[in-house]
Predict the structure.
Amino acid sequence: MADDQQTAEPVEEKPFKPSSPSSKLNFDGFWEYNDAPQSTDSIEIKDQYDLFIGGEFVAPEKDRYFDSVNPTTEEPLTSFAEATQQDVDKAVKAARKAFTKSWSTLEAKERGKYIFRLARLIQERAREFAILESMDGGKPIRESRDVDVPLAAAHFFYYAGWADKLDYAFPGKKAEPLGVAGQIIPWNFPLLMLAWKIAPALATGNTVVLKPAETTSLTALKFAELCRDAGLPEGVVNIVTGAGQTGSAIVNHDGVDKIAFTGSTEVGKIIKKSLAGTDKRYTLELGGKGPNIIFEDAPVDQAVEGIINAIFFNQGHVCCAGSRLFVQEGIADKVVQKLRDRMETLIVGDPLDKNTDIGAINSEQQYNKINEYLELGVSEGADMYQASCELPEKGYFCRPTLFTNVGQSNRIVQEEIFGPVLTIQTFRTAQEGIDKANNTPYGLAGGVWTDKGSKIFNVSGKIRNGVVWANTYNQFDPTSPFGGYKESGEGREGGLQGLYPYVKLK
Ligand code: NAI
Ligand code: MG
């Protein structure tokens, strides 16, 4: 061993340099990824989708449809029905009828069986759901295949299990369903957000009118087909498509007992105002500006992977994204350099390529919003660094971006960008890190990286966030509750806590 060390040639440490600034890697000619496109041959997408009301697909009253664009090609993928107030009214009535006639009177264990069946059907058609999610919304197939769809199935499995065990969830109390739940979801995790909403509602005996986001309604309509295939009693799940006006018609409908909303803080505030003075229950899961705090004693390479995951996962279209990085001063330069090196290796491009790390921005509107924030960051005086990858000629693609030299008052530090954009600040003491992390109107999720368990407990207890991950980021499980403080919303989804918003306790 000692001899080896003496004779070994000194290894020259070369800084990592990709040989070509393209989305394909080439480590000095050693290896290179080939294209690995996911086949879409077996995928059927209709030209037009109707509303799903009372167990059938029905045309909208006004016969109006709107295009849904594939953000990778910028071409229309299909079109969805625009539900008006009358359509929403029909859906709410169908849900009410199903609530009184079948669902609320069904034995709990039978309800559970239907929910299990939905979970199994999602698993059986997992690949199809993943591909549709990537085509309609732009997220990399690796994520829709490995994260969105399996987690959606897991939520149905988990809540199926609770259906006949509510007496154990609420010992000494009787849990009764509320009635009709109006549910409005965003475009960042379309099928997963549907699962978060529908699974606990059905498990507790409620019926549902759900509106997917206007840019990503496809998997919700495929899910409607599953409801039909599962033989779910008609009207238990109704899917209405449309934009803000359709959502507003659900929120303001007298026949709705509970509103569950995930989306922007701006719309969350509008909904809260509309519901003031009514007896409708609500949960709001809104925006975020998650702090990710890295201490000097953290395992740096692991933390760098975690930072990358926290902000570039799903193009940064994540309400709990770790979009504000706080690094302890002593390791700041090292962390920034390692982040830049790692960013160079990220593959930005076709969401249907299995090697892609960062797919397409969900819509032109969101793409423009992110670019406005990039300009704003530069005009505020921050230093911007972007990975040097080439972007596809077509489609809404954005380079992973870092901003250094920013302060607490910069708008890019304070406002939710919802894109692959990270701001980096430093701190000296734990208290300074905590103060900076809490200096935001949001309080959804964050991360702490340190070798020391006591520091984890100290810091995570003082960050005003619904979720704090330690030495990891973006871990989800149906058994753990999720939700925010401050302008990040009210109420919890997931876990036992996720049953509360759907029951009256007697
Ligand atoms: P949004 O809040 O407008 O849309 C979310 C859902 O609410 C969609 O289904 C939409 O049709 C519906 N909606 C819109 N206006 C409504 C109203 N008045 N009443 C009832 N429902 C309504 O979000 P948008 O405009 O698509 O994105 C804007 C920004 O919001 C993003 O850039 C991002 O910063 C943030 N956002 C946050 C999300 C989160 O999970 N926290 C999810 C989506 C967006
Ligand atoms: Mg909007």
Q: What stands out?
A: The chain has a mean pLDDT of 94. The chain has 16 helices and 22 strands. Residues 48-285+486-505 form a domain with the Aldehyde Dehydrogenase; Chain A, domain 1 fold (CATH 3.40.605.10). The two ends are 74 Å apart (CA to CA).
